[in-house]
Design goal:
Layout: H1 4-13, H2 15-40, H3 44-55, H4 64-70, H5 75-93
Helix pairs in contact: 1-2, 2-3, 4-5
């Protein structure tokens, strides 16, 4: 953990630290805006699609409950939507 006075000193004296901190804060603002946008969506399907569009793919199965919490849905609803998506993809592939 970095103490506040040490961080302030580093930000004032080290351009690389200041740049890295500014980049970190910009990324956090983007992430907060994205999450706000996802949470404003009405359906689990829409929220899941938006999350995947931003992150590229789902994480391993053991971390799905964390994504459900992040997008503001129950784990059960999240798992049901993943199952629906997979069934739809499988039936589209069968045609």
């Amino acid at each position: 953990m970095v103490l506040k006075p040490d961080l302030l000193r580093a930000l004032e004296t080290d351009v690389a630290v200041a740049s890295a901190w500014a980049s970190h804060l910009a990324n956090e603002v983007q992430r907060a805006r994205l999450l706000s946008e996802i949470l404003s969506l009405k359906t689990v399907k829409a929220r899941l699609k938006a999350w995947i569009a931003w992150n590229g793919a789902l994480p391993p199965r053991g971390r799905w409950h964390m994504i459900a919490t992040e997008i503001g849905v129950t784990a059960e609803a999240f798992y049901r939507e993943i199952a629906r998506e997979r069934r739809a993809a499988n039936s589209a592939g069968d045609r």
